[in-house]
Predict the structure.
Amino acid sequence: MIVRQFIEKFIQWVEKKTDKTLSPEMIKKYVVDRYMYLLYQFTHGRDAENEDALRDLYHLHEKMISLGWIKAPQNPFKVIRKTVPISLEELSQWKTGLKDDRVIHSGVVMFGTGKYLDHLANLEEGATSDFIQQNLESLLRHVETQRGRALQYFNRRLKEEKRWRERLDIVLLLIRSSLRLKDVRFLNAGLKCTEEYYAYFKFKLPGPLLIRYLIVLVEQESALKELTEK
Amino acid sequence: MRVALLAPIRTSLYSLAIAQLISLEKGVELAAILVRSPWSFARVRSEWRRDGVRLLRKIANKWLLRDQPMPDSGQGELRALMKELHIEEQNLFTWSQKRDILIKSVSNFNSRAALDFLKNANPDLLLFTGGGLLRKDILGLTSMGVLNCHSGWLPQYRGMDVVEWAILQSKGKKPQLGLSLHLMDQGVDTGPILLQQKISLTKGESIEVLRARMEGMMPGVMLKAVRGFRDGKLTTHLQQPGEGRQFYVMHTRLQAVARKYT
């Protein structure tokens, strides 16, 4: 009895120390706090001219409104284009560069996977094509089996910021795929990735990369709500 | 018919129950038992990567506290079965030494030592009760193959936490639960299905209690398949490439949602 109690207490202590779980409340607080800072930085500060970051902030704001995390009558971020179109030529060039039509080979991920697969999947009937499905399954398997070592290697030398951007784009792809395909397995993988990445972003200075991480978090929460509450 | 048993640890109640059932079965000889040693860096590392902190609970329940398991260990039904089968031993080594059955501990089922031991025992069929992935050498060692009892309904639910996934996907309606006895191949739960047993979720039953109930049924399903091989009465359902999906360890937030449906 005493032994059992001791072992139970020890396990609980280890679980607490190693628990990376981000509760919904922690996520909301983290996103809202960072958003408030970014609101000032990108509407008054020196970054107010960064079109890409402003676009991401515009979407972040919209998502936070739909989650009920903030109340604001108007989106404070002014953007000329809400989305950046990707030309068919660019898509075709990327796809042609794939070996055997696969986005991941021996743990090495093709640059642009998140962005281009997401775009392709968004096109009419694209989400259910064999090309998308097989590559999504490969990505899922890679992320789930490699865990903390997933998405480490890309087919190009990338600076740290670009590498993180690629990772976040892939996680966004997984989360959006969960909604498109009504397949919670992809959201499951997304949840694990965002928690894994929190240690890096926890104290990250506000900037375009952090905004991207915040978008991943809000889309994750939105997907979770959509897929599990209805 | 000669069979050999592959066990994840020497104190596996599931393996002990199957060993006892097979040893009492006419026309079937338990030729050897191969046990995977828990004390290898590679094993601990791979299981930690897969299960994380859950591994600690697994070790505590199955090895440290086997005589007084945690309430949520899910071993209640298996212990009841052990009593029913009059199994006094708590350890496969003690059990097999009493019955003069070959037994060996290895660090990895795919090792040279494991293959040599099994070749020497010359079984017709292998019964897998846990202990990691098997490679093609061991999968192709016997004429009949390797049997595994998967705690999910195949082909729909392959992989990990399939009980939780089935409940989550049911959204409060009747989940697709069951045991699937299949031959192992190099894929994850993709081999031909031989037997299946549907299981219903009892209202108010927790996932832990459900898993314990399923574990208590698994030795019986495995025995049924062995009898089927002995008597030549099994039919095979080949799983098609597009059929079913692979599931992975479920995130705690999704587990919390699944629990609401029980």
